[in-house]
């Protein structure tokens, strides 16, 4: 039986990238894709209108809940119809466009889509796909197949490749996380795309799945609940993974599933600290402290100590603004432009 995976794509002031993402969903025509929910976090910059216009012109089966909030949920395709043959498949695929009503952050915005799927759809799993990510052919089916192979898996990741250089891997599924340092190390970072991928080793090392492409099974979602929305940005994935693992679910990796990621286009986040925006820096540090307090409070002294050392390093590098932003985040003070 073909798995039924609903995709959720969250947009905030980045309509062109969201359209690229949706175009990749259309182009791969993956039979595992049962539908798509596009959530807009009250962008207010015209990107919602741009996305709506593109969807209307693309011929998709669109349910626009931004203009008709009570619009009926689309009827599911008959078995074997969804995503089977290119453009015809896209024309049958239900796409629901939703305005979340505010800038709810990563977790809050995605949770709106998750709640809609849970309430209305018949599904086996949900794939959160960053709006600055694009699917390669067979990606969704490969992830769903890996989860079917190991029923105890609750979440699964893909091979995430940098879009700006498709010969370089950003991550094999996700990362290893040090609770004592409060930081993560991406698995397979900067490996060549042609390098051999060891599925067993990756799964033994995974502490969380990268949010660029994160699939969660229905049983795991029902047992764990939606993402915790107390961070606004960052640490939502590892928070979710910790909660899932405490409920007995494992983390999986589908090596053949490939996603191309533009990385950090919305607010200037980046794995390269020198390229990270100050806003991104603020939310990252704030989330790090909140996560540590929430799950590993005994690790707080080392996490704070490392954070203070980074502030000192910023001062030495004459990046005083970054040091002040980090300090505000560490001590729970509001963001100040």
From TrEMBL:
The name on file for this protein is Glycosyl transferase
| Gene Ontology MF terms | glycosyltransferase activity
Domain Glycosyltransferase 2-like, residue spans: 126-304
Q: Which family does it belong to?
A: Belongs to the glycosyltransferase 2 family.
CDD domains according to UniProt: GT_2_like_c
What keywords appear on the UniProt entry? Glycosyltransferase, Transferase
Instruction: Read off the InterPro entries from this record.
Output: Glyco_trans_2-like (IPR001173), Nucleotide-diphossugar_trans (IPR029044)
Does Transferase appear among the keywords?
yes
Give the source species.
Answer: Pseudaquabacterium pictum
Under Pfam families, the record lists: Glyco_trans_2_3
At the top level, the lineage of the source is: Bacteria
């Amino acid at each position: 039986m073909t798995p039924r995976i609903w995709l959720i794509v969250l947009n905030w002031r980045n309509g062109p990238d969201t359209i690229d993402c949706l175009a990749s969903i259309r182009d791969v025509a993956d039979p595992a894709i049962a539908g798509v929910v596009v959530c807009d976090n009250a962008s207010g910059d015209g990107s919602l209108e741009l996305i709506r216009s593109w969807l209307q012109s693309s011929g998709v089966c669109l349910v626009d809940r931004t203009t008709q909030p009570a619009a009926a949920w689309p009827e599911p395709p008959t078995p074997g119809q969804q995503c089977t043959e290119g453009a015809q498949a896209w024309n049958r695929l239900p796409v629901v466009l939703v305005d979340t009503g505010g800038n709810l952050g990563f977790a809050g915005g995605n949770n709106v889509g998750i709640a809609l799927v849970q309430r209305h759809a018949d599904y086996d799993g949900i794939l959160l796909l960053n709006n600055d990510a694009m699917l390669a052919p067979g990606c969704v089916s490969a992830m769903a197949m890996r989860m079917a192979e190991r029923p105890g898996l609750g979440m699964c990741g893909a091979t995430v490749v940098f879009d700006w250089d498709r010969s370089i891997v950003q991550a094999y599924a996700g990362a290893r996380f040090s609770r004592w340092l409060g930081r993560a190390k991406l698995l397979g970072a900067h490996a060549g795309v042609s390098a051999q991928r060891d599925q067993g080793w990756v799964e033994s090392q995974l502490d969380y799945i990268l949010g660029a492409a994160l699939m969660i099974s229905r049983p795991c979602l029902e047992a764990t609940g939606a993402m915790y929305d107390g961070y606004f940005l960052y640490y939502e994935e590892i928070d979710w993974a910790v909660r899932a693992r405490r409920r007995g679910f494992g983390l999986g990796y589908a090596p053949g599933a490939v996603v191309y990621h533009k990385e950090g286009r919305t607010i200037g986040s980046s794995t390269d600290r020198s390229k990270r925006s100050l806003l991104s820096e603020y939310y990252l540090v704030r989330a790090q402290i909140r996560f540590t307090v929430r799950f590993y409070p005994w690790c707080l002294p080392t996490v704070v100590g490392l954070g203070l050392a980074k502030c000192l390093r910023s001062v030495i590098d004459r990046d005083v603004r970054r040091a002040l932003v980090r300090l505000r985040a560490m001590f729970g003070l509001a963001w100040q432009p």
